Amino acid sequence: xxxxxxxxxxxxxxxxxxxxxxxxxxxxxxxxxxxxxxxxxxxxxxxxxxxxxxxxxxxxxxxxxxxxxxxxxxxxxxxxxxxxxxxxx
Length: 89
Hints:
The chain has 89 residues and is an all-alpha fold. The protein has a domain at 56-89. The chain has two helices and no strands.
């Protein structure tokens, strides 16, 4: 059994491994984020009034968009005429 030498400590004060207890705060970062988020209150996202007719995802064909534009112009014209008639009388 000729292995290697076994190293023994020659210093008189051999330290024993003492387990160190560290306070671990689980979820600490989340608590801080939650507190910060609630400082001015959580806000609901603003609801969109109408769906966008732009873009390729909810694809809306050009014929519909053109007709909607003319219909909106006609509605605005009718509203304006009704307002002027109410103001005149």
